[in-house]
Amino acid sequence: MNYFVRRTWDLPQSQHTSEQEYAARKQLRREFLATMGLGAGCSVLSALTPGCQQATLEQLEAAGAVEIDASMYPAQRDGRFEYGRDETERDEAARFTNFYEFTASKSVYLHVDKFQPVPWTLEVTGLCAKPRTFDLDDLVKLAPLEERAYRHRCVETWAMCVPWTGYPLHKLLATVEPTAAAKYVRFETFNRPQEAQQMSSSRYPWPYSEGLTIHEAMNELTLLTTGIFGSPLLKQHGAPVRVVIPWKYGFKGIKSIVKIELTDQQPTTFWNSLNPHEYGFEANVDPGVPHPRWSQEWEWMLGSRDRHRSVKYNGYGDWVAKLYE
Ligand code: MTE
User: Fold this and answer.
1) pLDDT band for position 95 (50/70/90)?
2) Top-confidence residue, 226 or 7
3) Closest ligand 1 atom, residue 237 Cα
4) Per residue in 112-153, pLDDT tens?
5) How far apart are CA 99 and CA 198, in angstroms?
6) Residue 101 has what pLDDT?
7) Which residues contact 307 (CB under 8 A, 6 or more apart)?
8) Where are the domains of the chain?
9) Which residues make Cβ contacts (< 8 Å) with residue 288, sequence separation at least 6?
10) Ligand 1 lined by 178 (C-beta under 6 Å)
11) Residue pair 284/247 in contact by the 8 Å Cβ criterion
12) CATH 3.90.420.10 for domain 69-324
């Protein structure tokens, strides 16, 4: 995701190690070695330094871990959903993430140490009879958690297959009793530049926000998500709570949400306001509609780099096509 014109001498973002990222990796390595009481030359965390092996799962999780009661995980798998492809490795998914509040690179896990996802509250407000603010404990216990094997398709053409844990968003919305006037749902991420370095940049319209129609939000597929791979969400995946909307491009799946608002107006959203020609409000996966700068006909899987033809609604047409008739 970007809205800058790439210069011909720039490497593709996937191959790029910025100076900032290099410095962050060095710093992380120094801190880790100091914590472990190990001297220079120890190779335990060499995986995080450029030119060496990639970070292991343990290292990724140490960087992104959240202190949360994990006793409710893993949740029972919902048998209605199958990937139809191989599951993405957990560490591949944790290493390559989008979270612009921290960095425009994919190595978000190197930049999340200051982020505090606990304690957390989520306000649900706007056009409803019973607006309410939930703390994390209330939120996680509001409905039975279930695990769903979903395909994920980013507008940038990468894809993954991962098990998310949560419950349908409609269960949360039902508790606040939306009024008949509620036509859209607006979501908002936290706004804490002191914990997320790129939020100090005035290039972006912080806080990150997204939106759905009320019918999309109430669809059975739209998942209020608190976990991944049988554990609470890592910071880089949007701890402690995000949404996952598997028939839409990944940027609609807003992370680390603090507010959900029911409204009668189509909300302004982060990428759409930055570049409406490239990132529409609806943003359903559709190989027939190319991005202005690249085709959407194919996607490649994190880890294996296997290529697959993209499918309208990411293959979830049976669940959602009726929303658009
Ligand atoms: N939510 C916030 N708050 N900030 C972001 O930068 N990136 C989006 C989405 N949610 C983003 C966000 C994009 S572009 C994608 S593809 C998905 O998160 C990626 O989810 P993942 O990084 O957990 O795979």
Assistant:
1) very high
2) 226
3) 23
4) 999 999 999 999 999 999 999 999 999 999 999 999 999 999
5) 10
6) 98
7) 298, 299, 300, 301
8) 16-54, 69-324
9) 296, 312
10) no
11) yes
12) yes
β-strands 231-232, 223-228 pairing: antiparallel
| Residue 20: strand pairing partners | none
Rounded CA-CA distance 103/263 in Å is 31
Ligand 1 within 6 A of CB of 259? no
Longest dimension (CA), the chain: 65
State the burial class of residue 144 (Cβ atoms within 10 Å of its Cβ: 0-12, 13-18, 19+): exposed
C-alpha 236 – ligand 1 centre gap (Å): 9
CA dihedral 48, 50, 51, 56 (to 10 degrees): 20
d(CA 102, CA 17): 15
User: Rounded to whole angstroms, how far apart are CA atoms 310 and 71?
Assistant: 37
Closest ligand 1 atom to Cα of 162: 24
Residues ≥6 apart with Cβ < 8 Å to 69 = 137
pLDDT tens per residue across span 55-82: 777 777 777 777 677 788 999 999 999 9
CA-wise closest residue to 118 among 103, 104, 136, 130: 136
